[in-house]
Structures are given as C-alpha cells and as structure tokens.
Amino acid sequence: MEQRLRSMLLPGMRRLGLVPLLRRLRAGFRSAGNAEPAGSGHPGNDHDRVSDYWGQQFQAMRGDNSYWLNNKLVEEATYRLMTDTPRHWLGWLLNDYFAQRTFDRSLSVCCGDGAHEIQLYTSGKVRFVSGVDISEGAIKQAAARFAEAGAPADCYRFEVRDVNALQLEDQYDLIFSTGALHHTTNLEALLSTVERALTPNGYFVVVEFIGPNRFQWTDRQIEIANQVLNVLDPAYLRDGRNTRFERPTIENMLACDPSEAVRSADVYPLVKKYFDVRYERFYNGTLLHQLYPLLRTELANQGKRDFDSIVKLILLLEDLLIKGNVLPSDFVFLICQKPVPGSRRAA
C-alpha cells in the first residue's frame, strides 16, 4: 500500500504550478497489502517527517510521468483555465497581469526548492526574493539554485521556518502560496500574519488545492471516477486491468505526510475572509488528478492519438461537470490584496 500510495502521488500539490498533489492517492485503491500504521501524531515527530519527506520530492516529481501536469495536453488545458493562455501561470502573472509593475520584496510561503523563486529573480521584476519552508533539504536546494545562477547574496534569503508558527518582521509587496495553505493547520494565524506583512498596495498570490480534507473524496467524485474507469479498455490502464478508485484511509494519509490536505476545504473561504480577491480562476482537477496516474502514462507526449483522446475526453467531462455544478473544482488560482481599511470587520 505504501509503495502504491507514493507512486500515485509523487509530485505533490505543494508546488503545483501546480502547485501538485498526486502522491497519496494510491491509498484509495484496493490492495491486498497491509495498511501502513498511522503516524504517532506527536507534533515534533510530524515536523521532522514532513521536513524529511519534502526535502526529497521536488526533483523526482519533475521526471514523474504519472504526474498530470507533466502531460502537455493537461498542462496547456490547465493554464488556459488559469489565465486564458497556454503559458505557465507565473510567466503570465509577471509579464501580463503585472506588466506595468515591479516589486521590491517577495516572500514565498513554503518555497520548496526555489523553482518558482528563481523565475522571480531572473524576470527582473522582483528586487529581493525570499522564501521559507519547513524542509531544510529544500531550503538548501533553493539557496544553491540562486548561488549557481550568480545571484548576489543581498538579493535573496531562504530560511527554515514552520508556517504554522510563522513570525514576519519585514514588509512585502508580493507574497506567494503555491500549494502551501493546504498543508497548514493554523490557517487563520498564517493568513493573519501574511495580511499584516503585505504592503497596502501589495499582492498575495494563491495557487492551491481546495478539495476535501485529507483527500476524503465525495461519493459523487468516487462514483464518476469509477464510471470512467469501467468504460476504458484495460489496455489503457496502468496495471492492465480494471481498477477501483476509493478514498484513502486517514491512517495512510498520516503515514505518508501528516500535513497533506490537513484543512484544504477551509482554504478558499478563509482566504476570501482575510483578503480582497482581485482575480479568481478555478482550474478543475476534481477527476483528472485522481484518474491520470491510473492510466498508462508512459504513452503521454508521444502523439498517441488514442491515449491523447482519452485524456482530452476526461478533461472535457470534468469541465462540463464542474460548469454544470455537478462537481466542484478542487483547485483555485487567486490574486488578492489587503482589504481597504474600514471596508470590513477585522478578520
């Protein structure tokens, strides 16, 4: 069960540019193996396990063909939902949405290995780039990325910090959460801290999984996902046979990553409570990010018309069901600002 779980969800939604999220779904499939024991639940142990886990994942996810956004068809469709263009959301944000704007200081909450942050630096749009992350390994990778790019030491800073107890002394005119909030237990405190640290004319950019807590998929999601699996020829399924999709157990979720989707369903309403949303796009993922790793993903990006047609049809079905209010979107892209003083009750 552990191996299947990790194989399905390797990329994670923590850096979904996507951000990311697919690692623990394998716990939702029938297996003859024994379930992994639940984590101890001790905060210190959880802190270390989360740190160690994420220190190893970022490079692996970029080469994992079972990650939905490594499929070029899915990537383009997702970016079109986010920005109305086929380009990566970060490039669109800097060059289109902020075409006339530069920034003094940026902060990335759960910056990971600095893949987005190096883009901020090389764009020339941000003078000072900073990031925090619970993983010491990821922070070392981020700093090394900037050093290799020849960035002056006074242009960036990366620190090992737990966002559940984050204290910020500086002010920032651009703050990012790309797959961080759904890993945060103390959401209210973090959002309050971010709001205070944001300059009056600054922006808070959110790219997040907002689906069910701990991946406890709804009955409707599970039913439709299995209907799709049932009509596909097993030759196009990963294991070459019919597969059932089910919820992961809480025990398996805790065993893999105690922070995963801990309060994901609360992210969207709380962000809207603490900030004024200037731009909002839902980018689906309610079916495809569960189903894609179950397909024969080695056929992706090879011009295989039959496999590509299956992916396109799942994308279309998902979009129609979400637009028809049959299913909600599990992912959202938000560009936010501080509330105007006096415009709302303090959060």
The total strand number stands at 7
How many structural domains are formed by the residues? 1
What's the SSE pattern? HHHHHEHEHEEHEHHHEHHE
Principal-axis shape equals globular
What's the helix count? 13
Low-confidence segments: 1-43, 49-55
Average pLDDT value? 85
Largest beta sheet: strand ordering: 3-2-1-4-5-7-6
Q: Give the fraction of residues assigned to helices.
A: 25-40%
User: In angstroms, what separates the terminal alpha carbons?
Assistant: 42 Å
Largest sheet: 7 strands, mixed
Strand percent estimate: 15-25%
Short description:
The chain is of the alpha/beta class and 347 residues long. The chain contains 13 helices and seven strands. The protein has one domain.
Can you put this structure into words, describing what you see?
A seven-stranded mixed β-sheet has the order 3-2-1-4-5-7-6, with helices on both faces. The chain has helices at 2-9, 43-55, 58-62, 72-83, 89-97, 115-123, 136-148, 187-197, 219-231, 250-256, 264-274, 288-291, 305-323, and strands spanning 103-109, 126-133, 156-160, 172-178, 198-209, 276-282, 331-337. It has one domain. The chain has 347 residues and is an alpha/beta fold. Residues 1-43 and 49-55 have low confidence and may be disordered. Helix 2 (43-55) runs parallel beside helix 7 and helix 8 (187-197) packs parallel to helix 11 (264-274). The chain has 13 helices and seven strands.
